[in-house]
């Protein structure tokens, strides 16, 4: 098939030739029909003239001449047949035929002239209209209050800008032409340009796209952009119209602030708080996370307001609003209900109710401490405090009214308990929170009262005691002797592990120094567990060295046990600290190996002296093939790295035997002794030296 353009080029010549011929023959047929059926004999040229005129009028000079010639030929053959046997022309017929041909040619030329005159006039009018349109376009282009930009589609180069481009963006046209919006750094956020380009690729135009832009000099403003794809001189371009809407945005923000924010403090008002609470309830139901709502009421605010005046009272409310905002994250919401009542909506707490309550309590205590700090009000130092009611929600069964009521009830109970207090609505959570708070307070008292002591568990190798692990115990005055699992997590969370860990390290070093004076114990190493909180302190290396030097301990007999969790945060810092202490003589053991980070890439870089197989693998080593396989892998790895390996939690002879078969000959556990106080260990030591196994005490 022919393309559409080629078909048009073929059809036009056919029409210019075929239609004049058809018109002539139509006139001839009309003449014959009139004569045959009606006996009406009209002058033949009377019917041929309309055919000639039509051909010349619609198709031009040459089709008109073609119609004239064809009409003359037909007329000479059919209309004026020659008379006599020699077919000679009748003079009158020849004159008529000649006149017809001359008149037909004249008509064709006159009509062609008329047609050209009309076409020329139309062309002039079209050209004039186009020039007037271009002038109007240029007038609109240059006088528009909006910045208008024409840029190339494929590379974004500015081809033309109007005068408002300078007034809005600050660039003269010569500074912009040939550049792109990226060259001029017009976008405050380049991602906005990418989003606009994506819209244009999908639908060829974009209306009222809002973005923050930069004027010359870097000043930011809000603009709205309408853009569409156009073709100019055969090239695809983008026509963009930019309007400065900064004032409109400011007005919009002002309206929003009046509708959703407290005018005094700038915090969320009741309307916005309820909306955020509604959204939070929907999110918590889908994500199974707990949320907390805090009702915060200032203590004795009315007295302060009356004593110092409303101006000072308003200033205090603004300062408290700032402090409350600083106590939570950006995802949380802080609002003011009115007067001296504030509300905090805390998002994304733990899915476990008790853990969520612990997190909420920590935030509430931070608020209590922060609000209690002194204030400077118009040159005077003032103090304030608050009472906090807390409710935990997120199970999907509450409604907004219930949550608000619960937080309000809890706040009233906190008020009744006295100033600077907090209270939970849920009794079970309140009990758990109180228990944790009590334990934390007991822990602080216990550190001051030196209620802690070290127990020692021997480490054996081939029937010989090679060292001990120093294990912390808390001699709680009410709860009795507590193992580390009952208080170490809380100590790490509250950073009380720092003074506690310092005491443990110092006590262990004193024991190393004391044992160094006895030939039977001089070679024993003492392993001390180090918390990640301790190890991450910048002065950890210096602190260890000072303790060793102060106590006179042999650093070669001190082994610091690290867990794999220490490696997660900053392995380079870990390596530097280990290298520094290793050069001082301190040894390192990686505790609970196989349960944590376990990156061989970092493991081979650590200056370790020992790997420790976790008790969870040893416990099931006889009945669980996977535990045995893991133990075998750890032993093989330690052998490949040239590191000694020791197993903890060995309780039976069968466990010790299979470990020995796998290549691990060092162990600790109940098989030889449970952890015991110092005096019991020193009494036990001679018997341990004579046997590889010892009945549990």
Ordered list of secondary-structure elements with their pairings:
Elements: H1 4-38, H2 44-59, H3 61-79, H4 91-143, E1 147-152, E2 158-161, H5 163-169, H6 173-176, H7 190-203, E3 205-214, E4 220-232, E5 235-244, H8 246-260, H9 270-287, E6 290-298, H10 301-308, H11 310-326, E7 333-338, E8 341-349, H12 353-372, E9 375-377, E10 380-382, E11 386-393, H13 400-416, E12 422-424, H14 427-449, E13 452-461, E14 464-476, E15 480-482, H15 488-493, H16 497-515, E16 525-529, H17 532-535, H18 540-551, E17 558-563, H19 571-584, E18 587-593, H20 600-603, E19 610-613, H21 615-619, H22 625-641, E20 645-647, H23 653-662, E21 666-667, H24 678-690
Helix pairs in contact: 1-2, 1-3, 2-3, 2-4, 3-4, 10-11, 12-14, 16-18, 18-19
């Amino acid at each position: 098939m022919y393309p559409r353009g080629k078909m048009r080029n073929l059809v036009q010549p056919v029409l210019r030739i075929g239609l004049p011929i058809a018109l002539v023959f139509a006139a001839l047929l009309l003449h014959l029909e009139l004569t045959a059926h009606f006996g009406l004999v009209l002058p033949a040229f009377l019917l041929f003239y309309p055919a000639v005129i039509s051909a010349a009028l619609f198709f031009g000079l040459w089709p008109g001449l073609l119609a004239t010639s064809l009409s003359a030929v037909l007329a000479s053959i059919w209309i004026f047949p020659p008379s006599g046997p020699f077919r000679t022309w009748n003079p009158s017929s020849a004159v008529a035929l000649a006149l017809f041909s001359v008149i037909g040619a004249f008509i064709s030329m006159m009509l062609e002239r008329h047609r050209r005159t009309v076409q020329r006039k139309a062309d002039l009018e079209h050209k004039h209209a186009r020039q007037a349109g271009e002038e109007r376009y240029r007038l609109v282009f240059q006088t528009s209050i909006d910045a208008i930009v024409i840029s190339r589609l494929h590379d974004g180069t500015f081809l033309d800008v109007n005068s408002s481009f300078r007034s809005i963006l600050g660039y003269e046209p010569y500074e912009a032409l040939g550049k792109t919006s990226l060259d001029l750094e017009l976008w405050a956020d380049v991602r906005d340009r990418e989003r606009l380009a994506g819209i244009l690729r999908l639908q060829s135009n974009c209306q009222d796209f809002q973005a923050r832009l930069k004027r010359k000099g870097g000043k930011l403003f809000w603009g709205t952009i309408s853009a569409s794809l156009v073709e100019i001189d055969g090239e695809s371009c983008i026509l963009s119209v930019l309007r400065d809407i900064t004032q409109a945005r400011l007005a919009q923000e002002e309206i929003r602030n009046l509708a959703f924010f407290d005018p005094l403090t700038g915090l969320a008002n009741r309307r916005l708080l309820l909306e955020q609470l509604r959204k939070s309830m929907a999110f918590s139901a889908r994500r199974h996370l707990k949320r907390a709502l805090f009702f915060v009421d200032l203590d004795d605010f009315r007295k302060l307001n009356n004593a110092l005046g409303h101006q000072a009272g308003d200033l205090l409310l603004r300062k408290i609003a700032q402090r409350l905002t600083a106590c939570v994250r950006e995802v949380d919401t802080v609002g003011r209900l009115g007067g001296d009542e504030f509300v905090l909506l805390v998002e994304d707490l733990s899915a476990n109710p008790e853990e969520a309550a612990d997190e909420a309590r920590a935030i509430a205590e931070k608020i209590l401490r922060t609000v209690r700090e002194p204030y400077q009000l118009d040159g005077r130092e003032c103090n304030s405090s608050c009472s906090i009611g807390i409710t935990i929600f997120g199970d999907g069964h509450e409604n907004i009214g219930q949550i608000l009521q619960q937080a309000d009830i809890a706040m009233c109970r906190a008020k009744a308990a006295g100033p600077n207090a907090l209270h939970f609505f849920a009794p079970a959570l309140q009990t758990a929170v109180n228990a944790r708070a009590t334990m934390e307070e007991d822990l602080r008292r216990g550190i001051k009262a030196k209620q802690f002591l070290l127990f020692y568990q021997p480490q054996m190798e081939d029937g010989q005691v090679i060292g001990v692990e120093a294990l912390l115990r808390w001699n709680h005055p009410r709860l009795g002797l507590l193992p580390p699992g009952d208080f170490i997590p809380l100590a790490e969370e509250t950073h009380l592990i720092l003074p506690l860990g310092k005491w443990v390290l110092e006590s262990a070093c004193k024991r190393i120094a004391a044992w160094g004076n006895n030939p039977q114990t001089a070679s024993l190493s003492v392993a001390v567990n180090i918390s990640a909180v301790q190890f991450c302190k910048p002065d950890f290396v210096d602190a260890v060295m000072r303790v060793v030097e102060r106590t006179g301990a042999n650093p070669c007999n001190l082994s610091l046990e690290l867990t794999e969790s220490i490696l997660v945060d900053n392995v380079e810092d870990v390596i530097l600290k280990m290298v520094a202490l290793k050069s001082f003589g301190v040894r390192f053991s990686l505790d609970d190996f196989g349960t944590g980070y376990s990156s061989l890439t970092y493991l081979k870089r650590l200056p370790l002296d020992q790997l420790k197989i976790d008790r969870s693998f040893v416990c099931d080593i006889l009945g669980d093939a996977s535990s045995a396989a893991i133990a075998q892998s750890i032993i093989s790895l330690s052998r490949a790295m040239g590191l000694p390996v020791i197993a903890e939690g060995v309780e039976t002879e069968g466990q010790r035997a299979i470990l020995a078969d796998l290549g691990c000959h060092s162990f600790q556990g109940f098989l030889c002794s449970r952890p015991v106080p110092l005096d019991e260990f020193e009494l036990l030591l001679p018997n341990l030296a004579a046997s590889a196994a010892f009945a549990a005490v």
